Fold this sequence. Notes:
It contains one helix and ten strands; from the N terminus they run βββββββββαβ. By secondary structure, the protein is mainly β. It has one domain.
Amino acid sequence: xxxxxxxxxxxxxxxxxxxxxxxxxxxxxxxxxxxxxxxxxxxxxxxxxxxxxxxxxxxxxxxxxxxxxxxxxxxxxxxxxxxxxxxxxxxxxxxxxxxxxxxxxxxxxxxxxxxxxxxxxxxxxxxxxxxxxxxxxxxxxxxxxxxxxxxxxxxxxxxxxxx
Length: 163
């Protein structure tokens, strides 16, 4: 799980995502490619059920439980009326907050199902809960945030390149 913000290098003008933190299920000592991850137990469950009249329901559950002294925890639960995903392709650069000269190039093909979007007037969410706590996540998610959209990504293929 990566934590990032959009950023621009004032000196070079290069723009991309700045990875400033995150969590990895890899063994102790692995800070990830960006040098900013903490160790965590990560669990993701996703299911799509088809019912009468071909009605489809999606369910997702995400849990990130930080290990060590941190005690960070993130939980997301989502149930929604599923639609046919739209295909999207993108290319992005992700930079490290630890070492801003380091970046990766991601080329992605994915299926997007916007299940809630205020600007687009879409809301197929039947149940949603989000909770984040701990020294890293609690500061970022203090309850003052406003949910803008929920995107389910049932298919995702990524190619990673170094410059």
